[in-house]
Amino acid sequence: MAVKFLKHKWQKVLLIVVGVLVILVLIPVLFLNSFLAPKLSGKLKEAVLKGTDSLYTIDYTDLDLNILQGKAVLYGITFKPDTAVYNRMEKSGTAPGSLYELHVNRLIISNAHPFELYFKKKLNIGRIALNEPEIRINKYAEKKADTAKKDDRTLYQKISKSLKLIHVGEILFTNINYKQFNYTGPKVAKSELKEMDVKVTDLLIDSATQTDTSRFLYSRDITTELKNYNSKSADGLYNFKVKSVKLSTQTKKLTIAGLDLKPIDHTLFFQKSKKDRFTLRMQDITLYNFDYITYQKSQTIDVKKMVINKGKFEVFSNYNGPLQTTDRLVTFPHWAIRHAIKATLNIDTLDLKHMSVMYSQLNKASKKFGHLKFDNINGRFLNLTNRKEDLAKNNITTANLTSYFMGKAKLDLHFVFNLNDATYNYAYKGHLAPMNMADVNPVLMPLSMVKITSGRVTSFDFNVHSTQKVSKGTVSFLYHDLKVDVLRPDYTKKTLISALANAVIIKHDNPDDGDKTPRLANVVYIRPANFPFFKTVWHVLLNGIKNCAGVGPAQEKKLNGQADTGDKKEQEKIIKKAVKEKEKEDKKFKEAVEDKKKGKKD
Question: Where is this region: Disordered (predicted)?
């Protein structure tokens, strides 16, 4: 076909013309590629020097430039500080608090306009892509002299003589290797992040955007995503994992997925530590209107709304070694907000969705664990802050929660915490829906050596005001047909003591038959210093429950004083005598009730 095509004269002429045109185009393009490459290189290096006050330089090993495609590929890029310049700035008090280094094997620039850059001093690029860049940040303490002259010019003002405009439609950083070395403390603190992506949208530096506060680092949006982050605590007791962390500066939305704080096995943990053991898992955490700029500048966490969706929090009380004697005030929520969180914190609203909490404790006598559970927790916290100016306006945190106690009965809770009170004042009240009392056995049997064999809660209400030392309040525990077994450490039944408990000590109903007025417990509980927050709340309520059931301190002492060994006949006599005394008391009580009714009729 080629031979036949070239037989005609006009075909040969056409081929020659096309060939000449191609050569005429290729020669200037090749010339421009070789001519513009060093020119553009010079412009880029000059812009970096002027934009950073000569602190940073940029260099690369090779540059491939294609004028027709508007594409450039840079190899072996190095962006680093000039240490001599930094030392001079440090002496004058103008040195920045951080230094940055960037190393990239290959950078691809596409949809660029080199002629516009060369003739109009406008750098206009469609897209920049960097794969697997290495970023290092060295953080130092900032020291600024009082007499130091500060350059208040904007970045645009610094580069305006070399470039009138810089615009990049999209910048992509994929698989970033990020390292930070913090030299501000007594020891160098190192942190490292891998599998991080950054997307910059609509970067624009010109006379208009130099004062545009709606942009972050001159960009319309910067989206950062960290994937599969893992770390281990310094003592090796905890592993910390996060599936992904994503932040958008435009929407001010921070999303954390798959957060997992996992301790080592409890046996090994308590061999190495005297502290309580915590487990934390959260499926999703979302922060709305998160002020990232303020956080970056002053480590202030300022959030309009925070939502935690689907998670589990477990506290395992440390059973190893001697009883803890240190004050466990550190476990109180408002203590943690004031002292444990080093950053300045201000969260207007915190919503919890589908959470669960479990408190576990070992009874050394029974060598068994008791588990107190609250499932499907939903609720809202308001005004979580340690910022002084906010506390001056409102120092109260409130929490309204609903959950299912032991996974069975709905529990409504309301907490109030005073965030700056010297006594760590707090209060709580709640209501528990009807439930079978035997559902409490998983926590009652191991910790109290008592098993509920029958009984149903009609309602459970409480209202308690507390400080770090004392809790005072009322508990209303309404129930019917309560019967129990008193247990040995191996969970076998103490027959005679159980009979005594059911016949004499425990009141089987509240209110009692023939009386419409229920028994209420006025609780005054002095917190042992080594009791943590959840344990304190549980013991306050447990004391109220016992009092409503007729098991006060005197009754407990009487019950514990009866041994389940020795002369069986003698014990039976004691029980029979106690039963008769109880029957007499009940008869007198019923007679008093009847007299009261007759008096009302008369």
Answer: 583-602
